[in-house]
From TrEMBL:
Gene3D superfamilies: Ribonuclease Inhibitor. Residues 1-21 form the signal peptide. Its main location: membrane. Residues 41-69 form the Leucine-rich repeat-containing N-terminal plant-type domain. The keyword Zinc-finger does not apply. It holds the Pfam family LRRNT_2. It comes from the Eukaryota. This is Leucine-rich repeat-containing N-terminal plant-type domain-containing protein. The keyword Repeat applies. SUPFAM superfamilies: L domain-like. GO terms for biological process: defense response; post-embryonic development; response to other organism. Keywords: Glycoprotein, Leucine-rich repeat, Membrane, Repeat, Signal, Transmembrane, Transmembrane helix. It comes from Salvia splendens. One of its GO terms (cellular component) is membrane.
Amino acid sequence: MNNLLAALLITSIFFTVFVHSATDASNRDAAILLRPTENQHLQDPLGSLHDWLQTSPNAPCNWTGVSCSGGAVVALNLRSLGIAGDFPADFCLISTLRSLDLSDNSLGGNISSNSIALCSHLSSLNLSSNYFVGDLPGFPVEFLNLTVLDFSINNFSSEIPANFVNLRRLQFLSLGSNLLNESVPEFLSELTELTQLVLAVNPFRPSPLPRNIGRLAKLEFLIAPMANLEGQIPESIGNLSSMKIFDVSQNNLVGEIPKSIGGMRNAEQIELYHNHLSGEIPDAFSGLTSLLRFDASENNLTGKIPKVWRRCRWSRSI
Ligand SMILES: *[C@@H]1O[C@H](CO)[C@@H](O)[C@H](O)[C@H]1NC(C)=O
Ligand SMILES: *[C@@H]1O[C@H](CO)[C@@H](O)[C@H](O)[C@H]1NC(C)=O
Ligand SMILES: *[C@@H]1O[C@H](CO)[C@@H](O)[C@H](O)[C@H]1NC(C)=O
Ligand SMILES: *[C@@H]1O[C@H](CO)[C@@H](O)[C@H](O)[C@H]1NC(C)=O
Ligand SMILES: *[C@@H]1O[C@H](CO)[C@@H](O)[C@H](O)[C@H]1NC(C)=O
Ligand SMILES: *[C@@H]1O[C@H](CO)[C@@H](O)[C@H](O)[C@H]1NC(C)=O
Ligand SMILES: *[C@@H]1O[C@H](CO)[C@@H](O)[C@H](O)[C@H]1NC(C)=O
Ligand SMILES: *[C@@H]1O[C@H](CO)[C@@H](O)[C@H](O)[C@H]1NC(C)=O
């Protein structure tokens, strides 16, 4: 009897503590989420966030765009909701937040390194398709968990800051379609967890591909057309054995296609068109048995086409 009472008592204490702490966390998270709209830093002209009410049951876990785990907010997906204003860095005050997707909205202005620093516990940040301008924010060493960073389709200018090398876990990096106008930095070859790297459509200062890009052994997608690339395609691409889509078209690359390209043995698509490449197409291509599409048109290539390609399907001439 005593044991049963004790068990009941312990259970009810546990239950009370657990429920209360979950509620406290929810109340705190709800207050944090409401702050940017309350102080007018975030506008919601379409009323997409009309159900963000502190008083609603299960607030904030069943609010539009909010996902919780164990009563704590872990993900915010506010994609395509028509929200406007500054980067709402305050959302990152939720210490349990892991994923923040603010893409395809009308957010704008600068993002300071100080505000992004609040978000160091995130694993995924998507700010694609907004109106952000100015310098890319720098990332301090605390960003240990960020695996996805999508800054594409904004108006960021200037350089890729050197402290991007602090993003040791980064697997996906897109800076495509911005106004970045300094060089493509060599240090990108230090982000060795990358599987996807998008640099396309930026007015970079004419610069070569990182010489040691071959160190990105896990890279599957390099998307860099219209990035003002010049110089030769580095030999080290031969070490990109995971590469599936290699697109450096519409740049100013010169010299020969390195024979080492045969090392991209999983390549499905190679786009070299509209550059100033010269010489012959290396025989090494005949080893690329997964290749579905290869386009080297609008260059100065000479010589024969490897016989093995009669099996190949292509959409453009060489
Ligand atoms: C949130 O929960 C309340 C009460 O269960 C419900 O009335 C409301 O429709 C829910 N909101 C959403 C967006 O699911
Ligand atoms: C980021 O959002 C955009 C637009 O909503 C989407 O197309 C893109 O796939 C997202 N990026 C990632 C890495 O999921
Ligand atoms: C990274 O993620 C792990 C596991 O989810 C977590 O324990 C750790 O606190 C996170 N680190 C940072 C800096 O947020
Ligand atoms: C972004 O850049 C484009 C092209 O330079 C310009 O037309 C547009 O006004 C800019 N938008 C913002 C929000 O800065
Ligand atoms: C914000 O971005 C604009 C546009 O690029 C730039 O001129 C300005 O210096 C930036 N301001 C700050 C505080 O970084
Ligand atoms: C890069 O763009 C910014 C913003 O438009 C401009 O202030 C700066 O002078 C440009 N830098 C170079 C090297 O063209
Ligand atoms: C590929 O990597 C190996 C070992 O890391 C290195 O010795 C070699 O020079 C690299 N190949 C190229 C073409 O860079
Ligand atoms: C090809 O080479 C010729 C002669 O060197 C040069 O005039 C022409 O501009 C080159 N074309 C391309 C696409 O590089």
